[in-house]
Specification:
Length: 507
């Protein structure tokens, strides 16, 4: 309660110092603090944010560029120790962070707990990896008279652009990976969730990450993100968000008149689940509800297209409608809430507009009722629509909307082709008790994360390394063994250890 009544502040954090509205014009920011409203109640002011101006961007870049080498030279064990201390601080501050996630991002308490948990896991996972792989040189084989080693170093300044749907977990995952690998970092949180980003950065500094090694620049894509990625001092970009923005960043990087640098992009999905007639229907319904509607469907992993074998479709859809009727849509702070608001009015209006059109074109299977306490927030009623063919499906709808397509028993290969044909490749689910069917589908489906006889969200760090292919992202998988390597540069060093190699005067 105490944490919930609090008002938070965010602004550019440069050199470890949070700039507030009182800093008036010193660095060229638009110093008017903008109020931050809660998605659950748009009259509730959660805090305020000052967006970064051009001078803030320059100050962050200059400071990070000057600090990068020093941080990279800091032993990996020390960098790991900072991440572990930050993870401990996240746990100590869990009630406050859950309240902040509820108020700024509209997350209910289980989702808030999961946010903190995942952020903690990312830090400890990458800390272990840095201790193992980034502390010293690994020996490589070679002929007598030669000593060969392999080492991983930071690239320089990394820009981390994170999404509002996992404002603590993905924010932390990107930043922690970049720092762990030895980079200085400029973090740009989503403009909808700057308060959470600012809180995370404050805790990272408290944990010992130097102020000049980690900076925060709140703002939108055009005013901050676009300026950062074109700067030649930037040596790498991590981005999670829309496909359109990932493509725009890719284009900007390609057009830079400077070194080629990596883009680690994680975008969206048109994630499908196939259910055949051998599936356990009760289990399927529970998994569809969770995969489609938890977090109001605002996960890139969320279920968008449910393929159901015709023989069981009527039964399954009747049971699904019954389960949807029981969903409680409302205030994130209420313990009984299942479905929370969407992030803002723009997202709500776009989803409702889509649903209105879909209601005219598709079969309406079920639309949930909104509760009394939803009138002041940006809520969207969960819906299920029936489609004849997946080709009718347009762009990803980032909200609580599930599309259902029926198929016949002998059409399963065509279904896999249709799913692959959508071009995305993030998550996928299959419910079937026939092992040969499962194997046949898994062999052909082109996705990063496949889930069998379970829900398809909530990847756990180190357990379900997460990330897609095709239109869904570049890889490597977050929370997996190769993620940190993409933030680093690999060096193979070969030393001549013969007398000749050891004595320059013999040349
Ligand atoms: C995202 O929604 O941007 O498995 C990706 C999950 C989460 C998805 C994160 N890791 O549900």
């Amino acid at each position: 309660r105490e944490a919930d009544a609090r008002v938070w502040h965010a602004g550019p954090v440069i050199g470890g110092r949070l700039r507030g509205p009182s800093d008036g014009g010193k660095t060229g920011s638009d110093d008017r603090a903008q109020p931050v409203h809660s998605p659950a109640d748009t009259e509730h002011v959660v805090g305020d944010v000052v967006w970064a101006g051009a001078d803030d961007i320059e100050a962050a870049l200059a400071s990070a560029a000057a600090a990068a080498d020093r941080w990279d030279a800091t032993p990996g064990t020390e960098r790991a120790a900072c991440l572990r201390r930050y993870a401990d601080l996240l746990e100590t501050h869990m009630p406050e962070l859950i309240a902040l996630c509820a108020r700024e991002a509209g997350k209910h308490i289980p989702d808030g707990v999961a946010e903190v948990r995942e952020a903690v896991d990312f830090c400890r996972y990458y800390a272990c990896q840095v201790e193992d792989e980034f502390s010293g040189e690994m020996p490589l084989p070679g002929p007598t008279g030669e000593r060969n080693t392999y080492r991983l170093d930071g690239r320089g300044v990394f820009v981390c652009i994170s999404p509002w749907n996992f404002p603590l977990a993905i924010f932390t995952g990107q930043v922690a990976a970049a720092l762990a690998a030895g980079n200085a970092v400029i973090a740009k949180p989503a403009e909808q969730t700057c308060l959470i980003g600012a809180r995370a950065v404050a805790l990272m500094h408290e944990a010992g990450i130097p102020g000049d090694v980690l900076h925060l620049l709140p703002g939108d894509g055009p005013s901050v993100g676009a300026k950062l990625v074109t700067d030649l001092r930037v040596a790498g970009v991590a981005f999670t968000g829309s496909l359109a923005t990932a493509k725009a960043i890719n284009k900007s990087l390609a057009e830079r008149d400077g070194p080629l640098i990596p883009l680690i992009a994680e975008t969206g999905g048109q994630n499908a689940m196939i259910v055949d007639s051998s599936a356990l229907i009760e289990q399927v319904v529970a998994d569809v509800i969770k995969s489609g509607f938890q977090s109001a469907g605002q996960r890139c992993s969320a279920l968008r297209v449910l393929y159901v074998q015709n023989d069981i479709a009527d039964t399954l859809l009747t049971m699904l409608s019954g389960a949807m009727a029981e969903l409680s849509v409302g205030d994130p702070w209420r313990l009984s809430t299942d479905v929370t608001p969407v992030i803002d009015a723009e997202a709500r209006d776009a989803l409702i507009d889509y649903a209105d059109k879909a209601g005219k074109t598709y079969e309406s299977i079920y639309t949930c009722r909104l509760g009394e306490d939803t009138r002041r927030g940006t809520f969207v009623a969960p819906r299920a629509f029936g489609l004849k063919n997946v080709d009718e499906l347009g762009d990803e709808q980032f909200g609580p909307i599930v599309h259902v397509v029926r198929f016949e028993a002998d059409e399963i290969d065509e279904v896999v082709d249709a799913i692959n044909g959508l071009g995305y490749g993030l998550t996928f689910g299959i419910h079937s008790r026939i092992d040969t069917t499962v194997e046949r589908v898994l062999r052909r489906i082109k996705v990063g994360n496949a889930y069998v006889n379970r829900n398809m969200i909530g990847a756990v760090v180190g357990v379900h390394p997460f990330g897609g292919e095709g239109l869904s992202g570049t890889g490597p998988k977050a929370g997996g063994p190769h993620y940190l390597h993409r933030f680093a540069t690999e060096r193979a060093v070969s030393r001549d250890t013969t007398a000749a190699g050891g004595n320059a005067s013999l040349m």
